[in-house]
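thread: overnight batch results

M.L. [08:02]
morning all. the overnight job finished for the chain we discussed friday. pasting input first so we're all looking at the same thing
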Amino acid sequence: MRKDPLSHKRVTETSRKDGRNRSGIFPGAMVRIVKKQDQGTGRLTEGKVREILTNSSFHPHGIKVRLEDGSVGRVREFS
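M.L. [08:03]
and the structure it wrote out:
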């Protein structure tokens, strides 16, 4: 059985955009976060990052950030 030559690339692109890796998240970046109170519903809040609160380069639930409006949550998506 042959391995798909693009499988590594797909995984890398997905993990870069899903908010679990800190690379690509920086102050001023547009992101969608899930706040603690919205975890049950999955409701996303969109805004610009003011501050990154997670120190590690990876977090399985998403990098925690504070948005410019003061909202705090874990990044689910970013552009």
